């Protein structure tokens, strides 16, 4: 079981563009075209499945929002920070 990060640790370690909301870190990626966002969401889903750590992904017309938390631990862990970095790299 992973340790839940403190608010300060989350704020210090979350990648640029990610922010802390409750027991999650969230980021919204913007796209010029709807299908570009869908393609990114699909790639994010593949990454999540490989890592067996599944975020909430919301697809809108010109943006994709991703929320990460470790449900079993009840908050943000190192794995969430690492997943955020993977998603940023995929963008």
Describe the structure.
With 91 residues, the chain is an alpha+beta fold. The chain has one domain: 2-Layer Sandwich (Gyrase A, domain 2), CATH 3.30.1360.20. It is built from three helices and four strands; from the N terminus they run αββαββα. It has a four-stranded antiparallel β-sheet with strand order 1-2-4-3. It is globular and about 40 Å long. The model has no long low-confidence stretch (mean pLDDT 96).
Helix and strand pattern: HEEHEEH
Per CATH, what is the topology? Answer: Gyrase A, domain 2
How many individual helices? 3
Ranges with pLDDT <50 over ≥5 residues?
none
Helical fraction? 40-55%
Alpha-beta classification: alpha+beta
In the sheet with the most strands, the strands line up as: 1-2-4-3
Number of domains: 1
Write down the Rg.
13 Å
The total beta strand count reads 4
Largest sheet: 4 strands, antiparallel
